[in-house]
Amino acid sequence: MANKSIEPRDGCIASAMDIIGSKWTALILRDLALGPKRFSELEKSISQLNPRTLSQRLDGLEAQGIISKQASQANRPKSLYALTAKGADLLPLLKQMATWGNKYAANRD
Q1: What is the pLDDT of residues 26-53, one digit of tens each?
Q2: What are the helix (H) ranges across the chain?
Q3: Residue 81 forms beta bridges with which residues?
Q4: Where are the domains of the chain?
Q5: DSSP character at residue 37
Q6: Would you identify the CATH topology of the domain 12-104?
Q7: Alpha carbon separation from 78 to 24, 40, 71, 100, 105 (Å, rounded)
Q8: Beta-strand pair 37-38/79-83
Q9: What pTM does this model have?
Q10: Residue 76 confidence (pLDDT) above 80
Q11: Among 30, 53, 68, 107, which is most exposed with the fewest C-beta within 10 angstroms?
């Protein structure tokens, strides 16, 4: 039986983890919270992330409606990635994760 005080119905947490549980996804969303970014900007920001994995994560997030891929300005043919409203709804969760990390896990001096 699910703990209803945490999860209003079975599977809610699992659904959220399907989206943000993949390695690097939370960092991609963190960067997109600041505004639309090009692939190369995301690649540079998360330096340990290889381009193939970044591409897979972006494709998955787009398929789930978390981000959108937009054509850039005419003089710059590169695509821009941006959070959708559904993606922006994840930001309070990411902020809570950051708060927890700052309190308990960020002791890496």
Answers
A1: 999 999 999 999 999 999 999 899 999 9
A2: 12-20, 25-32, 39-45, 51-63, 85-88, 91-100
A3: 37, 69
A4: 12-104
A5: E
A6: Arc Repressor Mutant, subunit A (1.10.10)
A7: 22, 9, 7, 36, 37
A8: antiparallel
A9: 0.84
A10: no
A11: 107
